[in-house]
């Protein structure tokens, strides 16, 4: 009977350890939440206005929109790990690597080198 208890404990430890490793690997490879925002639209009370994803490319993109007969520019960029309220996002970061570092366990070597 004592041997059977020992086996149950060992299997529990092994399974628990595998769960921790799986969680660490998953958090390292996961993409942070991101929203495409207009950098020129910051409002102190609301944050950045969220715009269509097509305005953001792999990095940041600037585009021109026609509005009421005039031409306005949209400085669109990906904004990571932000608090989203309606059509606005705030308290995030424009740095993808910073968003990955502060989310979950983080990944070694993915952070910015200070500054």
TrEMBL record:
Superkingdom of origin organism: Bacteria
Protein name as catalogued: Lipoprotein
Species name: Streptomyces phyllanthi
Source taxonomy: Bacteria, Bacillati, Actinomycetota, Actinomycetes, Kitasatosporales
